[in-house]
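anyone seen this seq b4? input:
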Amino acid sequence: MENLGLGFLLMGVGMLTVFCILLIVIYGSRLMIGLINKIAPEAPAPAPRQAAFNAAPVLEAAVAQLTGGKGRIVKITEL
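predicted toks r here
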């Protein structure tokens, strides 16, 4: 019976130690993230790029060449 009590004591101390270390990790990481966000905030997103040229004539010529003039483009959408 004495060994069983010692086992439960060691288990309790071990679980308490792990719980305390996890709390330190959680709150330490929250503190570190907060400090980093204050020191070096995230850079603003770049502006969306504008198309340099109208791609429709190029696409129409390519489709006409590939289909022998039988195919046509109905709608062009940007991805």
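Residues 1-42 form one domain. The mean pLDDT is 88. kinda curious what u guys think
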